[in-house]
């Protein structure tokens, strides 16, 4: 056996340690970038109500599982480094174990939400009509509930039989299979779904009698899009387990590199593909930007022309605080000011005068109240009217 000084002087051990340090830097950068992109993507999907549908609800839960995974891994690494300090107390170890438990749960939940994505996509292609609301509760149970069935027994055996340090070491690999086996099961099911979806896409593309190059291109595009969504890359090294290859071997390092690279940057790739380059999301963001830009331009123009606004003494209108509807491009609101000019009550007389102005809404005006042009006049009272725009709700 080797003592500590011999291990420190072993060049192979030093080389292996440097490689692991570089891999840690790589996946820390990957998880950090993924975390930022996923938080932004999740915020976008939540803020736009028109994007709330079954597909995007599943995407949001998938994003949340990626966020939980990234946060738990980054926190676990920080606490694991803290526990190596001799001055750290038992509380640091307990926090580190809690972070390790959260990491195991989030990794499994992330893989099961990838499985849910595969199941839902397969259902869209195979099942003609199905109750989305009913199935969504099943998806929630699979994505967030199923991992608890396996994580709780793992916590129990670790506490009873391997209650050492931060629970990061697997001295008995049989306990580790409590976590590994359900993840492998999810990988295999998703791989079968992936093959099935590719066959369906091939048959549908052939039915449209496309040109050979277009057919191959669209099939390749669909396949490449499905790979990060369903986590198919994980199947490549699933069976290259730690027990089957010696420590420091080239195969083990290749497997570790690919595993850490894909897992850390997968969240970033999913956020880009299913949010930032999604045409529905881009359309809603463009509409939001145009509304904001238009409101800003209208507000500046209103402030510029406000000093030239005419004042009406009889039946005058205070134009500064009108509740205006939200403006749309190249459309203005019309204000019709009517007064009876002393003709008495009842029906409007022929001498009725009508003044019509074109006003610009104030910046930040968000009221959706829009009225219809009214021809009625009341003595010494002003009727505020504006035409109703297409697609707006009317509230009086």
TrEMBL record:
Main location (coarse class): membrane
Keywords on record: Membrane, Transmembrane, Transmembrane helix
Subcellular location: Membrane
A molecular function (GO) term: glucagon receptor activity
UniProt domain G-protein coupled receptors family 2 profile: residue ranges: 23-278
A biological process from GO: regulation of glucose metabolic process
Name this polypeptide is given: Glucagon receptor b
Species this protein is from: Nothobranchius furzeri (Turquoise killifish)
Highest classification ranks of the organism: Eukaryota, Metazoa, Chordata, Craniata, Vertebrata
């Amino acid at each position: 056996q080797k003592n500590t000084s011999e291990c420190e002087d072993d060049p192979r051990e030093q080389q292996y340690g440097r490689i692991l340090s570089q891999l840690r830097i790589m996946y820390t950068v990957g998880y950090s970038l993924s975390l930022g992109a996923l938080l932004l993507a999740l915020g976008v999907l939540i803020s736009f109500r028109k994007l709330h549908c079954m597909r995007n609800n599943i995407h949001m839960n998938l994003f949340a599982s990626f966020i939980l995974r990234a946060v738990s891994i980054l926190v676990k690494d920080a606490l694991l480094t803290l526990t190596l300090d001799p001055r750290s107390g038992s509380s640091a170890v307990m926090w580190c174990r809690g972070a390790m438990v959260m990491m195991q749960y989030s990794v499994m939940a992330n893989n099961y939400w990838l499985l849910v994505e595969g199941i839902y996509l397969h259902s869209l292609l195979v099942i003609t009509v199905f109750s989305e609301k009913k199935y969504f509760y099943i998806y929630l149970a699979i994505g967030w509930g199923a991992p608890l069935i396996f994580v709780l027994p793992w916590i129990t055996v670790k506490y009873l039989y391997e209650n050492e340090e931060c629970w990061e070491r697997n001295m008995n690999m049989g306990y580790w299979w409590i976590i590994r086996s359900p993840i492998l099961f999810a990988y295999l099911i998703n791989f079968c779904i992936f093959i099935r979806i590719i066959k369906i896409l091939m048959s549908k593309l052939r039915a449209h009698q496309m040109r050979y190059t277009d057919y191959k291109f669209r099939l390749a595009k669909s396949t490449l899009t499905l790979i990060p969504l369903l986590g198919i890359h994980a199947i490549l090294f699933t069976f290259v387990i730690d027990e089957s290859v010696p420590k420091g071997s080239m195969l083990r390092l290749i497997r570790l590199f690919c595993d850490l690279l894909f897992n850390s940057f997968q969240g970033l790739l999913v956020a880009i593909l299913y949010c930032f380059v999604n045409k529905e999301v881009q359309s809603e963001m463009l509409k939001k930007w145009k509304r904001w830009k238009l409101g800003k331009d209208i507000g500046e123009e209103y402030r510029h022309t406000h000093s030239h606004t005419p004042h009406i003494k009889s039946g005058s209108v205070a134009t500064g605080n009108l509740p205006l509807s939200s403006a749309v491009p190249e459309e203005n609101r019309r204000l019709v000011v009517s007064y009876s000019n002393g003709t008495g009550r009842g029906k409007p007389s022929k001498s009725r005068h009508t003044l019509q102005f074109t006003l610009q809404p104030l910046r930040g005006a968000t009221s959706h109240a829009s009225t219809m042009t009214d021809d009625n006049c009341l003595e010494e009272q002003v009727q505020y009217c504006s035409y109703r725009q297409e697609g707006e709700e009317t509230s009086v």
